[in-house]
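Deliverable D4.2, example record:
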Amino acid sequence: MTLQEITWLIAVISFVGSIAIFLFKKIVIEPLQKSINSLNDTLKDFKLSTDRKISLIEDELDVLKEKTTRHDEQIKTLFTK
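Output generated by the structure prediction step:
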């Protein structure tokens, strides 16, 4: 093989490789990246929703603790009379 043929072969292989990499990126990587971004957004929304629900539950728990404490004190008062 001559130097010109080797250069031509390398150019063709590089061109075909570039096309293959471009197609792989378009067909595989970009849809995968979109799916990952969508999943990330969904997880953020889920975290916000969960944090909100936990906060509401903690508030309700605090109210129940206060009521329980009040009832305990009322029961103690009843038995001391």
